[in-house]
Prior knowledge:
By secondary structure, the chain is α+β, with helices and mostly antiparallel strands. It has helices at about 25-40, 45-50, 50-60, 80-90, 405-415, 425-430, 435-440; strands at about 65, 120, 125-130, 155, 160-165, 180-185, 185-190, 205-210, 215-220, 220-225, 235, 240-245, 255-260, 265-270, 290, 295-300, 320-325, 325-335, 340-345, 350-360, 365-370, 375-380, 380-385, 390, 395-400. A five-stranded mixed beta sheet has the order 10-14-13-12-11, with no helix packed on it. A four-stranded antiparallel beta sheet has the order 1-25-22-21, with no helix packed on it. It has a four-stranded antiparallel beta sheet with strand order 2-3-4-5, with no helix packed on it. α1 (about 25-40) packs antiparallel against α5. The two termini are about 30 Å apart.
Amino acid sequence: MTHQCTSSSHICTYSPCRRRTAHPCSGLVRALQLAVTVVCFCTPFTMSIVEGVGNCGLNQLNKFEKLSWRLSIRDPGSKKRVRWLQARRIFSPCPNLRIPNRFLREGHYAPPARSGHRCVADNANLYVFGGYNPDFDDAGGSENEDYPLFRELWRFHFATATWQQLRTEGYMPTELASMSAVMHGNNLLVFGGTGIPFGENNGNDVHVCNIHYKRWNLLNCRGQKPNRIYGQAMVIINGYLYVFGGTTGYFYSTDLHRLDLSTRIWVHLKPKNAPTDLPEERYRHELIHAYNLETNCWERIVTKPHEKIGYPAARRCHSCVQVKDEVFICGGYNGEQILSDLWKISLQTYQWSRLPALMPEPAYFHCAAITPAGCMYVHGGVVNLSENRRTGSLYKVWLVVPSLLELTLERLLKAYPRLPQLSSLQLHSLGLTHSLIQRLK
């Protein structure tokens, strides 16, 4: 196993001659420092110290873990918002009152069960946007203009294991099911999707939410915009946003569009392939066909089956994430049953492998996101066919062997869950770097 070390990962040191009372978690913090330092100075001595932590990493690989969360402390907000909430209670029976969705859903400390939503992740948080649940009684019925959709953005903070519904400003999208979402720096980009009724209220705009400032903006674009679709595939490569496929609700598409994020100009790409050599129309693409950016051609990839099991079962409404040169698919629906398996394909050898992990709760129409460290989070989805029941459960699974830094940080937080409550100055005095402190806050 190899490790990389960047200058941003170095731990600050402090003078040992200054007398101070050791913090209860200082031992594990020193282990965290060692986990960062050992990647640069690997010796038999240092490796023996962290061997126990490293063995934990192998034990965590390809095992789903159901996450529980703690109640977060909510800021009641300004007096203006308090007055608004009071007015809402008084006038809520009025059908003409439009309730701004930028305010928090009262009485909920985690996202209600849903499907058709999207999630993205950075190294500190999981963000969950939108979704659909026709059986959610607390959605407000006719008093909620978005029912049975969820016009809301939630954040799950890994360090504190707490959910928070973000109070955002600006215009939040109204197409809240089967849209596409990606992270680009500090910005959440959302494209397309559908509202109620499905297929009759589709979108083709790009909405951007700066997660730092918690503000939505509509990206004013020119050029050949995609049709109003949902269920499309989307990815950002070298400053370009690519959108492929999807459905209008009445027909399926194989159109490929590219948005230059610097000029904000859409281009309808027309591959050089013959019409019979293009990918077939489908809904919710998780693609095996490969589009070559340089030749402007679709390529058919011949993959290698698992030596005993063969290929993954045909499915739809599954999740798909990528870690470097490996792509993982999880769950889904094959027309008869909900699936729980986890598969991997190498983009170097095109070899399929079925991983030993199984979803504790088979699901489809769920969402999944991968952290930069290689941990996949799976949330929500439909889990019962006969009752069409949805879940709000959150799971995580390591798809790569966690680094020593990640393992030690996890052990530190399990041993001292109140560590994030320390001030940034206190955390810095313990020897944590600025990047680690940001993950705790």
